[in-house]
Amino acid sequence: MIILGIDPGLAFTGWGVIEQNGNRLSYIAGGVVKTNPKAPMAERLATIHDGLQEVLKIYKPNSAAVEEVFVNSNARTSLKLGQARGIALLLPQLHGLSVGEYTPLMVKKSVVGYGKAEKSQVAQMVKMLLPTADVSQNDTADALAVAICHAHTIGFNQKVA
């Protein structure tokens, strides 16, 4: 099964693609969709859409997972981030994929074993689980962590069922 993990953001939307074969996880690709901070909101959202659309066309995942965003105390910032997350949720669904949603706490607990782990700890563990992955960008590492969390959740649910 090929899994796409997405870490939505307005400036940088991280994405990571992994393959799950039984208990084995393999890195396929990862990166970020970067938007121009000076561009109008509609253009930035279109950039995220187009970038994720390209990832979906190239890697043809079987499933997707999106991280739930941290709610900011600034309502405007939260709204903008929510719009980017909407794109991240909608596109895989339009491609016929089931889409899992995970809180940052769930992702960290699944990958590191501790829900309040630091970003550097998450990146280190992603690198251990996917040795060939480039985790130099936090958004890519986070997206790969979301994909790993989804793989663990799917695997657990299949064993329980």
What fraction of residues sit in β-strands? 15-25%
Helix content: 40-55%
Global outline? globular
Structural class: alpha/beta
Number of helices: 5
Average pLDDT number: 93
Catalogue the unreliable spans: none
| Strand arrangement, major sheet | 3-2-1-4-5
Give the N-to-C terminal Cα separation: 18 Å
- How many beta-strand runs? 5
Q: How do the helices and strands follow one another from N- to C-terminus?
A: EEEHEHEHHH
User: How can the largest sheet be summarized?
Assistant: 5 strands, mixed
> What is the rounded Rg?
15 Å
What report would you give on this structure?
By secondary structure, the protein is of the alpha/beta class. Helices cover 50% and strands 23% of the residues. It has 5 helices and 5 strands; from the N terminus they run βββαβαβααα. It has helices at residues 41-59, 75-94, 104-111, 119-129, 138-160, and strands at 2-7, 12-21, 24-34, 63-67, 98-102. Strands 3-2-1-4-5 form a 5-stranded mixed beta sheet. Strand 2 and strand 3 (24-34) form a beta hairpin. Helix 1 (41-59) packs parallel to helix 2 (75-94), helix 3 (104-111) crosses helix 5 and helix 4 crosses helix 5. It starts with a strand and ends with a helix.
